[in-house]
């Protein structure tokens, strides 16, 4: 980790982070916040008011952010009743963009007043330091609406891409898909493959689900409008590392060099992982204590991020498939309000019956710690990018079961390119029967296949840790970006 010296006056560098209001995006943004703070950067973390409130909760439960949180200010913008995305789009007088613009105007004015009162050239004596003028906005891949705000204040707009570099490369290719008539999908049965720099041809139906919506749908219009602005930003920071997606980083950077792309830089800074200090014995999660009693690399950890809600019927098959595999397991489920049906009522009896061999959890779990427990032998995952990276860093093989968003793309990468996963076979309507789940678990735990993937996972884990160690590719990426921040803060 690079820490810039006081001479760089980095404490005056103030960045505004604007992630989309979902946990899958705010979790890596919180980790980025901590990294920036450790380097002496001030952060204003902006989201909808409702989301900031839930974030505080997540922080309490999971993050225990201690370091330098006085360098962070959380700003909750009061979105319309319909939520963040709708508030951004609604032409009402209180759009999120309007609110962010107002907030930025106040922050800029305050900074310039204090700069004046502290005398010419004495930028380092700014009031409480919090009012240093924002030198850039960093949003995520769906934050196109923030770029106009940055432009208004003549500061650069950057994106922290919370998914794979291959997904970023694909999003940068969307103008070509539109020009070639590939998107919007001409018909829902259209078939074929698309070309994305640095990855093998991708089946049309493995594109992110939000791109495959009908042209007239609000979702398609919303995502398209914001994604298309990705190519307008200065710098794209990617939560990935060079050795994981070499060919994508090389291809995109070649396009930047030959000016096919307008962006200035495409930089790996990952994997950004929630690193906790040594956990006190009394803070260990019951699942970790249970894992202590299991054999090394024997447990299947099945968890599906923050946005997957299975039907009762699918939960039934999943639980029984794990049981039938005769492998120890931890099953983490998000239960929705609709999981009160008759099927889910099997869970208490199921838990009782499998108590010796399995754990079923419906609350927040310390996933990174669980994945790093030596007893975990494989991760059944929906291929959310945070989970995928956490698993890669832990050196654990994956059973890939993509559900939505860009997860099918991630699955193709993990299974076909990186060969760190095997895919869960799906039946009609993407339903997975217990027999299929049982056999895929057995296949993974077989000596021959399992140990081959395990060896590759171990190698990639070493490379992931090297990337973020001093001198590693992602560490250098972060250093490069910090220098950019200092330059733009002086330009203010
Ligand atoms: O009990 C839990 C549940 C989740 N997590 C964490 O929550 C995050 C979940 O992120 P991810 O695995 O990426 O899944 P989603 O929440 O589904 O993430 C959304 O955002 C990702 C990043 O853009 C996309 O890759 C996904 O497709 C999208 O659904 C991970 O850090 C997990 O470790 C926990 O720590 N404990």
Automatic annotation (TrEMBL):
Keyword Nucleotide-binding found: no
InterPro entries (UniProt xref): UDP_glucos_trans (IPR002213)
Signal peptide extent: none
Pfam families (alphabetical): UDPGT (PF00201)
GO MF term set: UDP-glycosyltransferase activity
Keywords: Transferase
Name of this protein: Glycosyltransferase
Species this protein is from: Ceratodon purpureus
């Amino acid at each position: 980790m690079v820490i810039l010296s006081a001479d760089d006056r980095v404490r005056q560098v103030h960045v505004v982070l604007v992630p989309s209001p979902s946990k899958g995006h705010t979790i890596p943004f919180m980790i980025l916040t901590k990294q920036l703070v450790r380097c002496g950067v001030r952060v204003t973390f902006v989201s909808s008011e409702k989301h900031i409130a839930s974030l505080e909760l997540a922080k309490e439960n999971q993050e225990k952010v201690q370091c330098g949180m006085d360098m962070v200010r959380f700003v909750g913008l009061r979105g319309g009743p319909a939520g963040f995305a709708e508030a951004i789009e609604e032409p009402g007088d209180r759009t999120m963009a309007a609110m962010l613009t107002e907030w930025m105007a106040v922050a800029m004015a305050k900074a310039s007043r204090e700069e004046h009162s502290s005398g010419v050239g004495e930028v380092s004596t700014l009031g409480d330091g919090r009012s240093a003028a924002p030198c850039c906005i960093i949003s995520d891949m769906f934050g196109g609406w923030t770029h106009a705000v940055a432009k208004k204040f003549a500061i650069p707009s950057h994106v922290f891409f919370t998914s794979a570099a291959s997904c970023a490369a694909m999003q940068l290719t969307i103008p070509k898909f539109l020009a070639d008539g590939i998107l919007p999908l001409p018909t829902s049965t259209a078939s074929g493959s698309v070309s994305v720099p640095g990855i093998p041809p991708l089946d049309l139906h493995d594109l992110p689900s939000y791109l495959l919506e009908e042209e007239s749908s609000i979702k398609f219009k919303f995502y398209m409008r914001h994604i298309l602005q990705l190519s307008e930003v200065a710098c794209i920071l990617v939560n990935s590392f060079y050795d994981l997606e070499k060919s994508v980083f090389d291809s995109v950077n070649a396009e930047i060099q030959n000016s096919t792309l307008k962006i200035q830089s495409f930089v790996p800074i990952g994997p950004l992982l929630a690193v906790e200090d040594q956990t006190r014995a009394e803070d260990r999660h019951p699942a970790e204590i249970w894992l202590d009693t299991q054999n090394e690399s024997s447990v299947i950890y099945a968890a599906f991020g923050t946005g997957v809600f299975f039907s009762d019927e699918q939960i039934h098959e999943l639980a029984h498939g794990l049981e039938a595999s005769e492998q120890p397991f931890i099953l983490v489920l998000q239960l929705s309000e609709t999981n009160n049906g008759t099927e889910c009522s099997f869970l208490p009896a199921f838990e009782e019956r499998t108590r010796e061999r399995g754990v079923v959890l419906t609350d927040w779990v310390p996933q990174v710690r669980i994945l790093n427990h030596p007893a975990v032998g494989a991760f059944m995952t929906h291929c959310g990018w945070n989970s995928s990276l956490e698993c890669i860093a832990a050196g654990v093989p994956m059973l890939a079961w993509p559900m939505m968003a860009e997860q099918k793309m991630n699955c193709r990468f993990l299974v076909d390119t990186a060969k760190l996963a095997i895919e869960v076979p799906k039946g009609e309507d993407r339903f997975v029967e217990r027999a299929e789940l049982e056999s895929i678990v057995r296949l993974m735990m077989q000596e021959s296949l399992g140990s081959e993937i395990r060896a590759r996972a171990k190698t990639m884990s070493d490379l992931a840790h090297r990337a973020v160690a001093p001198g590693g590719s992602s560490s250098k990426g972060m250093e490069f970006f910090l220098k950019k921040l200092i330059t733009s803060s002086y330009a203010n």
